[in-house]
Amino acid sequence: MLITDDKFLFFDTAVTKSITNMSLKPGDVAKSPQNPLFKEDFFSEPPRPWEARYDNGYPNVFYDAEYGLYRCYYTLFSKDDVSANTPPEARRGSQYVPKPGRETSLAYAYSKDGTEWVKPSLGTVQFAGDSDNNLIMRNAHGASVFRDERETDPGKRYKMMLRLDDEPRLLAASFSADGIHWREPIPWEPKERLIKADTHNFAFRDGHSGKYILISRHWNQGVRVVVRSESDDFIHWSKPAEVYRGIGSDDQIYSMPIFRYGNLYIGLAAIYRDGDRELAHWDKVDCELTYSGDTITWNRICPGTPFIPRGAGEYPDGDCDSGCIYPSVPVFHPDRIDLYYMGGNGQHTNFRETGLCVASIGLDRFAGYEPSDLSREGCLETSVLKMTGSRRLHLTADVWDNGYVKAEIRDRSGKPVDGYRFEQFRTITETTTGGTASWEQNGEIGMPDAGFTIRFRVKNAKLYAGEMRQR
Question: Would you say domain 30-361 falls under CATH 2.115.10.20?
């Protein structure tokens, strides 16, 4: 029995019990026509010599209300002789073969509106004898940065998890009062390399459990796998354990930033394609959705179908994100969700130019059910639900021409409840986000002590989410 005192998403198998003529599909994201919002500037004028290659970027974008700024922390190769000595116009038809001596660093940019970005001169890190750059830290691989609103020590308001690229390449934690000036990283104990961590080492404070969670990566049987660790203080961590893997070499989870939404955790998995070299997607990276109820057991949403689709074309003439997509966790607004990501225009192991991009999607619209055959009605029934107190049902759905959504409450035996039948429902005929669903004589569902199910009839519409709200 599912307790429904929070938003529930219909792609969750714990919510949806049965479907008839219904298919689950990702929501529709809209990419900004201004992409890329910023890009590598090694060959720009004036040049930024520390921006030789963004590679995967591993962006961490969030809105900082204290400063009124969007912040972006991103990984780059500050030293990469091959990229530095091969300008973009000379890369066509060439193969990128990196040489020893590459160096990863963490850089910073900010924006007042989320679209126009500034790479400030921070004056905190020396590069080639000069501190006129936007570098936060050198020899920092796959760092994640976030603002910890629950932290009581102002000096630890901002937190960073990274892999130190000096041998033995340990995971480490760092703290900052302002997000710009950082303390010396504290390596994990014991000082031995537990996982490879050559990825986006994504850490966050789980508002549900209060613990810090790290999602990183290791290798097992020749493929990349997702590992998880947890901590009470951001310094002492549990031994990383595998929690998810893809399906073979053509479906490897390269990185997976996660966030809580409703009663679930949603992961934005970067899927690396390293299978059949004759496939068009070989050596490219797609972004797909995963979800979990506890950050330990994970499920895929629409496997093989990208959530943020790659752009069209091939290197070097394709769209700016035609090769690889590496996402940040979203930035939430009252009317939309912004999905920032680093988009690259080439294969993962080849030459590519990378930049920060953004796409948007409506609230709740990560994935939803729509009729498989749009000419016919589809049905969806929830698992047995239970709630505390009387509540109103609110739904998020897209409704197209001549479409509708209808709902009926059934008791645990499957019998329709009087007053909550389909014929008594006020049919939803327009797209709605968290809109009220009601019946002619009943605005509230008043069965707190007994389990019930909700059966939906859907025509030319897509059903995403529901919520039981108190008045």
Answer: yes
Q: Look up residue 470 and give its amino acid.
A: Q
Helices (H), ranges, 64-185 = 81-84
Give yes or no for a contact between 155 and 164, defined as CB atoms under 8 angstroms apart: no
What's the rounded Cα separation, in Å, for the pair 310 and 60? 20
C-alpha 329, offset from chain centre:
4
Q: What does the DSSP assignment read for 155-179?
A: GGSEEEEEEE-STT--EEEEEESSS
Handedness of CA 121, 156, 58, 65 (dihedral sign): negative
Query: Domain 2-25+367-469, what fold?
Result: Jelly Rolls (2.60.120)
| Residue listed under structure tokens 């529930």 | 8
pLDDT tens track for 1-24: 565 667 999 999 999 999 999 999
Q: 106-138, pLDDT tens digit by residue?
A: 999 999 999 999 999 999 999 999 999 999 999
pLDDT value of position 442: 83
pLDDT given for residue 4 in this prediction: 60
- Per-residue pLDDT averaged across 154-158, rounded? 98
Ranges of each domain in the chain: 2-25+367-469, 30-361
